[in-house]
Each structure stands twice: as structure tokens, then as C-alpha cells.
Write a structure and sequence with these properties.
Organism: Geobacillus thermoleovorans (Bacillus thermoleovorans)
Mean pLDDT: 87
Protein name: Phage gp6-like head-tail connector protein
Radius of gyration: 13 Å
Helix content: 55-70%
InterPro entries: Phage_gp6-like_head-tail (IPR021146), Phage_HK97_gp6-like (IPR006450)
Pfam families: Phage_connect_1
Low-confidence stretches: none
Largest sheet: none
Distance between the termini: 13 Å
Number of helices: 4
């Protein structure tokens, strides 16, 4: 696991347990997205992987209706981190 529920809730500034199931689903989806986008697996020691998971979870949590476009800032952040994780790491450095 790259990020924990508690870490995600702290990042989201959520202090209740009502949406723990949703947040866990978003964490799982973010980690799968990372693997699918890079072809690599990462653990919690990789700070870029953690940051990408935080950004994805926050974007999906805050924009649940999926209406409209992803902000350019989020898109650029995700693309930049995915590129770095794809090209700057191999299976021995994760």
C-alpha cells in the first residue's frame, strides 16, 4: 500500500469516518492507475508515488460528479509525475 486511509484523510482534511469506504476505494484505484500508467509497482517509500496517489485521490474525491474537465493544474501534475515514475525508476529503485 502506497498511502494509508489515515494519510489520505489527513491530505483531504476529512475528520469523520462516514466516507472511509469511498476513500479506500479511491486509494485502491489510484494505486492501480499508477501501476497501469507506469508499468511499475511502488511502495510507500517512493515520495513521488505517494504524491501522485494523494493528487488522484483528492481530485476524484472533490470532483465526484465527473462533470467538466480536469483542471490543467491537476492534469499537468499527474502527467509530470507519471513520466518521472515511468522513466526514472526501475524495479530495483522503487
Amino acid at each position: 500500500m502506497i498511502i494509508t486511509l489515515d494519510e489520505a484523510k489527513q491530505w483531504l482534511r476529512v475528520d469523520h469516518n462516514d466516507e472511509d469506504s469511498l476513500i479506500n476505494t479511491l486509494i485502491s484505484a489510484a494505486e492501480k492507475y499508477l501501476v497501469n500508467a507506469t508499468g511499475n509497482t511502488f511502495d510507500s517509500t517512493n515520495e513521488l508515488a505517494k504524491l501522485l496517489c494523494y493528487v488522484l485521490v483528492a481530485d476524484w474525491y472533490e470532483n465526484r460528479d465527473m462533470i467538466g474537465k480536469t483542471s490543467e493544474k491537476v492534469r499537468h501534475t499527474v502527467e509530470s509525475i507519471v513520466a518521472q515514475l515511468t522513466h526514472c525508476y526501475d524495479s530495483t529503485t522503487m
